[in-house]
Design goal:
With 86 residues, the protein is mostly helical. It is 77% helix and 0% strand. The longest helix is centred in the middle third of the chain and has 66 residues, at 3-68. The relative contact order is 0.04. The mean pLDDT is 88.
Length: 86
């Protein structure tokens, strides 16, 4: 083989190896990003379940308090300071 053909062969081989390596690195980075997205989604679902449980607990407490206490809206309920002090 001539010197030029050896250099061409070596350059082509090196280029092919470099391309394979870069594609592999890109796939690994993409896989890691997708996995991070799955982890983030799982954390968001966990937070959502916790918030929903808190909301349900608050709803139950409100129901119990409404049974025990009289609750007023505060509109036109008298007893306020409006109109007193003249």
């Amino acid at each position: 083989m001539s010197r030029a053909s050896k250099i061409t062969f070596a350059g082509t081989s090196l280029g092919a190896v470099a391309i394979v390596f870069l594609v592999h690195q890109g796939q690994q980075a993409e896989k890691a990003a997708m996995h991070a997205g799955v982890i983030r989604d799982m954390e968001q679902q966990k937070v959502k379940r916790e918030r929903q449980a808190d909301f349900e607990m608050q709803r139950e407490l409100e129901g119990e308090y409404r049974k025990v206490q009289t609750v007023h809206d505060g509109e036109g309920g008298g007893g306020g300071k409006a109109g007193a002090g003249g």
